[in-house]
Design a protein that fits this description.
Radius of gyration of chain A: 14 Å
Shape of chain A: globular
Largest sheet of chain B: 6 strands, mixed
Strand content of chain B: over 45%
Order of helices and strands of chain B: EEEEEEEEEEE
Number of strands of chain A: 11
Shape of chain B: globular
Oligomer: heterodimer
Helix content of chain B: under 10%
Structural class of chain A: mainly beta
Distance between the termini of chain B: 37 Å
Order of helices and strands of chain A: EEEEEEEEEEE
Strand content of chain A: over 45%
């Protein structure tokens, strides 16, 4: 029972290089999210998607792009990495949140991807 | 001002103690509320949802006060294994969808 899988788990980049983080979920969830976590800052939302083919900006979208071509996959791209993008990246997914209590909309997280930009 | 605020702590308590955390949110239209637990260098995991009537799960009690816009988490009879960071999560309407927003977390250290 895989849940949410992120690849790669670790990566070191040089400034200016590009890379893509892959998130895959097998729970048929509609919503998917990319967060970054830095010391003392908590989790901040980069981009999210409410369904296949849709994406939207979160709190800190600059320097990142995303795509959701398939419902189960959510890709996070860094076109030109900067040291400020050194962070731990978490992908999460959830079922459709229905207004009102009773539907928890629980977030399921991947194990995280640790990215260092030199 | 961050939309979801928590005291970062750390809260340093002995085993068996009772400890309480609060979390305030700024958007009165917030829909759902949760407490997540995050262990060091691990992903967050759901601890419990928070309902208007209050809810309890073993040693953990969560409450919501919509009028004052805060949620709380009470841990009774603390265990060493409760040491972790506790994240407050509030879902808010954004662009027609309810999106989770995290607080920065409250660190709990339970010592022998």
């Amino acid at each position: 029972n895989a849940g949410v899988t992120q690849t790669p788990k670790f990566r070191v980049l040089k400034t200016g290089q590009s890379m893509t983080l892959l998130c895959a979920q097998d729970m048929n969830h509609e919503y998917m999210y990319w967060y970054r976590q830095d010391p003392g800052m908590g989790l901040r939302l980069i981009h999210y998607s409410v369904g296949e083919g849709t994406t939207a900006k979160g709190e800190v979208p600059d320097g990142y792009n995303v795509s959701r071509l398939k419902k189960q996959n959510f890709l996070l791209g860094l076109e030109s990495a900067a040291p400020s993008q050194t962070s731990v990246y978490f992908c999460a997914s959830s079922s459709l949140l229905i207004q009102g209590e009773g539907n928890t909309g629980e977030l399921f997280f991947g194990e995280g991807s640790r990215l260092t930009v030199l | 001002r961050k939309e979801v605020e928590q005291d970062p702590g750390p809260f340093n308590v002995p085993e068996g103690a009772t400890v309480a955390f609060n979390c305030t949110y700024s958007n009165s239209a917030s829909q759902s509320f949760f407490w997540y637990r995050q262990d060091c260098r691990k992903e967050p995991k759901l601890l419990m949802s928070v309902y208007s009537s209050g809810n309890e799960d073993g040693r953990f009690t969560a409450q919501l006060n919509r009028a004052s816009q805060y949620i709380s988490l009470l841990i009774r009879d603390s265990k060493l294994s409760d040491s972790a960071t506790y994240l407050c999560v509030v879902t808010q309407l954004s662009g027609g969808s309810y999106i989770p927003t995290f607080g920065r977390g409250t660190s709990l250290i339970v010592h022998p």
